[in-house]
Structures are given as structure tokens and as C-alpha cells.
Amino acid sequence: MFDPVCIIDDDRKKIGTMIYQTQIVGTTAEIEKFIREFEIEQIVFCIPSCLEDERKRILDICSKTGLPIKVIPFLGNLLFDDAHTTLLGQVRDIRVEDLLGRDPIKFDNADIKEFISGKVCMVTGGGGSIGSELVRQIAKYAPKQIIIIDIYENNAYDIQQELIEEYGKDLNLIVRIASVRDYFRMNQLFNQFHPQVVFHAAAHKHVPLMEESPMEAIKNNVIGTFNVATLAQFHNVQKFVMISTDKAVNPTNCMGASKRCCEMIVQYLSKQPGCKTEFVTTRFGNVLGSNGSVIPKFKRQIEHGQPVTVTHPDIIRYFMTIPEAVSLVMEAAAIAHGGEIFVLDMGKPVRIVQLAENLIRMYGKVPYKDVKIEFTGLRPGEKIKEELLMNEEGLQKTKNKLIFIGRQIDIDADTFITQLRSLRDAALENNEATAIRALHEMVPTFVTPEEFNKKFISTTAKAGSEEKTDEKVPVSV
């Protein structure tokens, strides 16, 4: 039950007027003042369709008050039917993504439905954060069959039971425990189920862990991708969709370099003479709420009364929600013709420390006072800022204004396959020094994090200095 006390509006002409006996008292700059004056207990954010920068500005002000915040959904998400007769009945709690400074991304469901309906779809890593959401979204579009492949039986079981509860016998669902590293096991599954579309989500993605175990990143990511992709080509799969990451761009760690190798494998296979499979790569940034992401960690720390730990005060990341990431993968698959890298315009990058501060405020606490923020230092292989494109890549528009196609960098096929064999052999022998050297040869943009971060900090400092120099200063006469 809501009891409106006052209304805030940035149109000064409206100040003093009444709406249903509730007065418009002032502007958003005065929110904190009126919260104290009227002893407000709850804020309802009622301008869902405002511009993203303005939305973020206002929500930042609201979050600093420490009060609970409810949000009216975006207009496109509002329901107007017999069960949803009022706006206030559809308000929801503020979410972390509300503070990211952009609207949710819309995708063309008609394209996706036409692409998925009636098809046999295989999802490797189908129990993981991205893989399980892929399976959920595929299930909505009436596939002929879904085949979940995962090495971790607990995750595979969880998504299996979730889908059985939701769809029962209406969904033809197959779950198989298997490793993408095992070529012969994967070949057996391709022979048995004849997938028409393969979504390759299986990968090791945790940067610091892979820095400690680089052979596992190479075996699982590079060799695993080569196995599944070559089998897709051999079995004439219609489309193969690989899920990549912004960490593949100018990588500073083994995980990112291994995923860049995966992109190159997909590109290499797409250019093979007589190739009937359409190969496509999707590249995006960090995913909110995924396994190993910062948000669940921050929430645990706040709820357990611990300091929130951030690696560096200047660290910046691009973020998107899991449904957005998966919708990108689905639409990219639907509109792909083969050989493309699809890149999402993810809006402005977000400072992790600001994300931590906003999350603390959402719990009704004051950053640095009620909850400490501690800076622990960059982790092994960690960049201060991630990128979505390499310098050589250009951007080509698609019909979705937020999805672009990155121009592929040419690779020499003979050199590439020779280097790939050397990398594979070294990894299988667990020869770390040789494998890392081979990884650097295959990915020339692979540099140490120290090199990248030093250059980034130097460039940022120089830009800030020039900006100050350009400022106009008053001159006394």
C-alpha cells in the first residue's frame, strides 16, 4: 500500500501544482532535502522512459538517501490486461542493472523464432550461467529437440529439472554428461542426435584461476572449441555459434588469449572450401549475476557484514544482464551468414567501485561508513579496462542498432594450423612454458597485464592533464 506524500519534477513550472491532492514540491536536485522534511520512507521512480544518462543521475541521487526504491517498469514491459489494471501494482524493487546507465536491449523475437522453431539445438556448457539461459530461451521457441551437454552433472541436473517442471513432456529434452575435450565422445553425440544448430558455451572463463592453470584454459577452451567446431563442420550442422568475451581483445591473460584462439578457429573453419556450416562468434562483456561475477560476491560480503573488496579504484568494465547476453547470441545466430564476429554496443563502461557503492546504498547502508570498501590490488592477468574491438577491426551496422559486425582480421591458414598443432601438443604434454610461448605466437596482441595497465594509466593521466591545460583561465588586466 502506497501513501503518496510529495512529487518531484524537474519542470519548475509545475512546482506548487497538485496531482490528486499530492503537491509537486521541487526538483530532483532537492530530493534529499524533501526526504528529510517530509520523513519519506519509500521512493517510487516513475519516469521509466527517460534518457539513460538522466535515469542514472536520478537513481544515483535516490540511492544515496539509503531509502528503499521501487521502479515503474519500462513502458514496453508494462502489462495492461485484466490481471494488471494499475501501474503501482507493477512496481518492482530497484535492480543493479538500473544503475548501469542504459535501457535493456530489445531483440527481434520473430527472427529468433523462425531460426529455432523445429530445429535440433545442442548447447555445450548447457548447465552454466550463459548455457542454461540459452536453453531457457531456446525452449520458448518450439525447438524440435534440445540437447544439453555439460561436464558438471549438478548444473546439468538443475536446468533439466527446471525445464521438466515448466514444460513437462511438451519439451523434447536430452541431457548428456560429456567433456568437449573428448573428441570421440562428442562425435558419438553428434552421430546420435544430428544437431542442426550448435551453441558452444562450454569454456573455462575465470581469469585468475586460469592464470594458475593455463593448460586447462588451453585444453578446455582451444582444444574443446576445435573439437566441437570441426565436428559441426563434419556433420554438416547448419549453424555453429561460439560465445566469446571482451577479454579476447588485446588479451592480458591466458583465458582471454585462449578465447581469441577460439575466435580464430571459428574464422579459419568458416573459410574452408566447401564449408556448409555457417560459423559465427558473439563477443560481449561481463554478465551481471553470472557464476564468478562481482555482484553475487558483493552481495555476500554486504549480507555477512564484511568489507566489500574491489581490486583497483580505477577498474572499469562493460556490463550486461544474462538475458541480454543470451538474446544477443540468439539474434546473432538468426541473422548470421557465416564468418562474422558480432559485437554488442554495451553503452558506457562502469567503474566497479561505483557499482559497489550503489549496491551498498541499495541495502540502505552508507559506503565507507556502514560498509567498508577495500582495494585489494589487481589479480593475476587482470586489465584495468576491457575492450570490445581490436584496433584493426572496423564496425558494420546490422538492422539492430545495438549489434555490430566486427571486421575479421586476416589470418594465414597454413601458419595458423601449424601453430595450433604446436599449442595443442604442448598443452596435452602439460608443457606450460612452451604452451604459453605458442599462445603468444598465435595471438600477437597478447601482452602482460603490467604492460597494458601501465600504458592505460599513462594515457589516462596524459589525457586528464591536457584537458586541464585546455581549460580557460581568467586573466587579470
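^ that was protein a. below is b, sequence first then the C-alpha cells
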Amino acid sequence: MRIKKIPFAVLLSSAFLFACKGNKTSADTAVLSDSAKLNSFEFTVEKAHEWNQLLYRNKGWFGGDGIFAVTKNGNESEGAAAKAETMIWFSDTMFGDIENDSLKPGYGMINNSIALLNGGKPDSLAIRFYWDSAKGKPASLFIPQTPATGPNDYYWLGDGFVNQEKNNDLYIFGYRIRNLPDVKMFGFREEGNTLIVVPAGSKPPFAEKRQLDIPFLLHKSVDTVGSFGAGILVNTKEAGAVSPDGYVYVYGVRGKTKEVMVSRVKPKDIENFEAWRFWNGKDWTADINAIAPVADKASNELSVSPLPDGRYIMVFQHEGLGKFVGIRIGLTPYGPFGPVKEVYDVSDDLKDSPNFFPYNAKAHPVLSQPGELLISYNINSFKFDEDVKKFPHLYRPRFIKLKYKLDK
């Protein structure tokens, strides 16, 4: 059993704070106004008990990480899942049976799976889980088959979106992973970044899917590696964006300090990698090597979502695998982003074992109600093989609701 997507603890901090001295000009006032927008955010947080219970399962699918969710019609606005079928996908997935809090023989793991949910509510009668099969056993739905793929590579899945400019096909970012057999801790390496294209109307196991290598992987050392797909913001009118500009913003994470990078492209050009542009801190450039971080202390998976007042909220696991779910408020999809606000302490989910750790918090607007964000985070163990037998329900997403109040 591998330890998955483990970010390293980080020490650096960044905050976009502004100060003025002397007489204030109109420009000073604008800066102060922006500073207030980056820091002012009223909210409350509570456990989302019904969603937690939905994925507390004893048969078949009983655990997974890397949860992302989109409506099949491409509407990304809050609560859109209430009127559409929603596809939810996971990376490493546990299958088998649990009886009396004990795992029965025959359980196992595959690298990815999906669920389909109708009605947008945490209803166990409205959700179905899917994977592929091979030789009579569960198998991953998505397996790398690109020119750059190595013989033993497998996929963990990043974020995705329904491309309304491309026949409503689903585009999912895949991380091509390779195990390092001689490394006991962190025994894996990201080898490539991929786009997986699932045609609209396709049914599991998605036999018609296509895969494209993405030429934007930055390095391969765990200290410097960077790739895209950690989160996606579809900022188009068709997707229900608050302030649409027609772009899809694709977020990436790089390095041990978990710096957040931003790229963007028009939905119709998603497969034309020469059309992608990267934020260099001042402007958009075709040179990926000039890309500049817009935040740090994030996690390998995250979300950036629009708020009704025109601001944006980034959600992540603070310091990669720290005990707090964190947020930053931004003025645009590419920043500036304000200081970290620690909004929820997950320590209660870690108390059963000193080996437990949290990771990869993110928001799911389509599953949220107006005025709130449903947020998930994952729990894993540094001694997974031992702890999954003692605590077979440990490996599943947990959920909270962040309810916010905006200034009038």
C-alpha cells in the first residue's frame, strides 16, 4: 500500500497586505479597499453529517480519495447538482466488505473509480459507484495509454470540467504515476500530466475515452515537480460564472512549499496546448518557465470558486497535510490572494491513530447550497496496511459546510 499524494510540511508564508503612510490619494484608497476585500470574510463552519454518512459504506466501494464533482450539463454554479446528474470521481479506491467494523478477506485497492449522483443530495438511494473489471475483479476505470506512458504507470485523477464548447465532453486531468520499488516512504513519482476526454453520453467503463499527454510537467524531483489539474475554475457564462471572461482557469501545484500556479485557456482550445497561457505575476505569457506562484502553503488538490460578490475563494489543506482546512480570498481567479484563514481543525478525525493525517481539502460548489460551500478533505495513514485493518472506515472523504455572510 502506498502513501498517496503526500505533500511535505512547509515553512514559508505569503500574504498580500497593504499599508499606507501620510496623506491618502485616490490610488491609496483603492489599495486599501482591495486590502479589506482580501481580509474581510465572515463565516461559520459545521460538520456535514449527511454527506459524511453517505460515504460511510460497508459493501463494495468503501473508501477513496481525490474527490471531484461536476454536473453532466456543465453548470458549475452553487446547487447545480439539484437539477442534473452529477459525476463524482476518486483516485485510489478501496473495495470489499466490512462486517462488525472488520474487513473481510478479499478486499483490495484500485487506482480510480467514479460515482453518479442524482438530485444533488446525500441520498444513499440516489448514488451508484462504478469501476472496470479484469479477470473477474475490480479494476481502474482510467489506465494510462498515451505515447509517453511507461509499462507500469497508473492514474491518480485531478479536477475536470464539462466542455460546453466541445460537445459537452468531460475533460479530466490525470496524473501519470510510477512506483519506486526500492523506496519505502514516498515510493512513487509523478511522470506526466494527461488530459482524459470522456465523450458526452458515454457510460462506464467509458470505452470511447481519449487521452492526451500534456507538455507542461515541471521537473520530476519531489521538491520541484509541478503539474496542472489540482483545481479548475470554469469562468464562462455558460457554466454560470459570476463574472465570466470566457476562460477555463487550470490550477497547478509545485514544489515542497506547495506553490499554486495558474494557467488559462479558452474551452474550445483546451487540446491546443500552444494556446495555453500562464500567469507570470504581471501578465499572461506562453512561456511556462516564467510562471509565478499566486499562493503557497496549499495542497496537491484544491479549489478556487467564485463568490456572489465578485471575489474568489481558494480552499485547501493548509501546509499540505496540516490539521487545518484553509482558505484565501482573491480579487480575481489569478489573485492577488489574501492571507491564509484557518477555518476548520480536523483533529477529531485524527484521534484514533498517531499515524493518521489529513490532505487535499477542496470545495464542491455544485453540491452546495446558496450561501455555503460543501468542503471535503481526506484522511490517510502513514501505516496504511496496519491501520486500515484496525479502522476500515478511515480512508474516505470527510465533509464540512462553510456558511458565509457577504457585505451588502
